[in-house]
Amino acid sequence: MRSLPQADPGTPDIRTPTRYLLWTARRQAGALAVGISFAILWWFAQALMPFVLGKGIDAVTGKHTDDLMTWSAVLFGLGLVQAYAGIMRHRMAVYNWLAAAYRTVQVTTRQATRLGATLPKRLSTGEVVSVGNSDIAHIGNSMDILLRGVGSVVAIVTVTVILISTSLELGLMVLVGVPLMAIAVGPLLKPLHKRQQAHRELQGELSTRAADIVAGLRVLRGIGGEEVFADRYREESQRVRHAGVRVAGVESMLEGAQILLPGVLIAIVTGIGASFAVDGQITTGQLVAFYGYAVFLIGPMRTLTEAADKLTKGHVAARRVVRILSIEPEVSGGEESSHGGLLHDAESGVTVRPGTLTALAGGTPEDAIAIADRLGRYSEGEVSFGGTDLGTLPLAEVRSRVLVADNNARLFAGRLRDELDVRGEASAEAVRQALHAACAEDIVEALPDGLDAHVAEAGREFSGGQQQRLRLARALVADPEVLILVEPTSAVDAHSEARIAERLAKARAGRTTLVCTTSPLVLDRTDHVIYVEDGRVRAEGAHRDLLATEPAYAATVTRGED
């Protein structure tokens, strides 16, 4: 088996499902051409067999031994050709299926990486997951069926030519009957298309619901909401089932048409051919050949209707892929450069001084999050970095120099060491120091394999506080030029929070750090505090000074307590 193609050097700018399928076909045009050639040879060998069989029967009835031996040898040779071509056709079909499916995975994954924070704002988790669950299979099937579909057209043309050369009436009957049967199944394709689209959308919504339930399972159990969400999931699951039944209803009619219509054509051709044989217009061998052709035509005809079905499903699947590819990132970058320095947000007035541990205390959590997003270039804003507009810097450079770590960040499946050191460049000592600063050493010590332990998807084996400490350790291992932490201690106990605050100040000494928090334990350890209310800076200074001079700040930080 040939190796699969390497990743394509870019995300295609494609706006319609048809163009996406054509783009996919062009990317593997060579493999498709080879596969179609083998498919044509495979069908052609089968198409000639009734003709050779008829010649052999005529040799028997005419008692021509030499002709019988010749046609028997030809029939044996056709069998060998058919066997070899069938094997190679199937191999190329599998290759083309995999190439199309995984090329779709490549472009959607690349687009998801390109979109970053934009993707979850525009699409639900279920819609993205459905691409990998089912859509890639349908897109692969649409490439696979091209091989047999083109070959079946060649086979039908070959049989028609042979029939016309033998009997004009029967040949014309097949020539007219085949297009009529193809037209007859046409009305089934549009409702099938619509029902498949509705089914896909419901599947995506159900996948989103399942992901939300799994992610919040601990919370649901804590508030006793399992039954409520289970009932909702059950209701949505039934809607998906009913939609699938509606799709199956049209598909069953299509499958029935694949048997009924060719069967009617076979009966007509065989009946008329038998009357011609009785009248002496054709020989016995030709009658057997005509019957063989009529039976053989079931295969190509079913392949054509199957091609219509799979291409329709591929078109529906490609629509979801195109929807993802058509999304543009909310933010983009330029080509300027910056030596770093002050990080300033003009909208709020927040200025993060280089080399200091700064705290941002917001009157509401939304204020701090919005500012952090602008400072990290996750949303548009008038932000400067060392006097240079942050929007003019290359986005990759911004991501490498300014790291925003919030509680929506996820832990992925894999080895814990790789999870903490995502670039694979940190030393063992750097990882140890990060774990110490995040008070996460006990988490690693409790694991049987330590840092080599396998982490489950989303870090399900860890509690909320443990996950938060591991995320903080990961951010510290990255050691960015500017680190922005959003509520890094909201899920830990007060004792651990005090230790993290003390150690964080030492770990980031001399590095630019902004902590969005209202925790007094953390605020007391920072060099400078900025208080924001209604999206604007209201006060700045040391934590204890602000407590004494700013009543609004004191009320926010102490939660109204003395």
What are the main properties of this structure?
8% strand; six-stranded mixed beta sheet; 21 helices; 562 residues; single chain; 67% helix; alpha/beta; 12 strands; disordered N terminus
Describe the structure in your own words.
This protein is α/β, with parallel strands linked by helices. The protein contains 21 helices and 12 strands. It has helices spanning 17-27, 29-61, 65-115, 118-122, 125-166, 168-184, 186-215, 217-223, 226-278, 284-296, 298-325, 365-375, 395-401, 416-420, 428-437, 441-446, 464-478, 494-507, 520-523, 543-549, 551-558, and strands at residues 343-345, 350-352, 357-362, 383-385, 388-389, 402-405, 414-415, 454-455, 482-486, 512-516, 528-533, 536-541. A hairpin with a 2-residue loop joins strand 11 (528-533) and strand 12. The longest helix has 53 residues, at 226-278. The termini are far apart.
E-strand count: 12
Assign the structural class, choosing from mainly alpha, mainly beta, alpha/beta, alpha+beta, or little secondary structure: alpha/beta
Number of helical segments with 4 or more residues: 21
Instruction: Strand order, main sheet: write it out.
Output: 6-9-10-3-11-12
* Principal-axes shape call: elongated
List the helices and strands and how they pair.
Layout: H1 17-27, H2 29-61, H3 65-115, H4 118-122, H5 125-166, H6 168-184, H7 186-215, H8 217-223, H9 226-278, H10 284-296, H11 298-325, E1 343-345, E2 350-352, E3 357-362, H12 365-375, E4 383-385, E5 388-389, H13 395-401, E6 402-405, E7 414-415, H14 416-420, H15 428-437, H16 441-446, E8 454-455, H17 464-478, E9 482-486, H18 494-507, E10 512-516, H19 520-523, E11 528-533, E12 536-541, H20 543-549, H21 551-558
Parallel strand pairs: 3-10, 3-11, 6-9, 9-10
Antiparallel strand pairs: 1-2, 1-4, 4-5, 7-8, 11-12
Helix pairs in contact: 1-11, 2-3, 2-5, 2-10, 3-5, 5-6, 5-7, 5-11, 6-9, 7-9, 7-11, 9-10, 9-11, 15-17, 15-18, 20-21
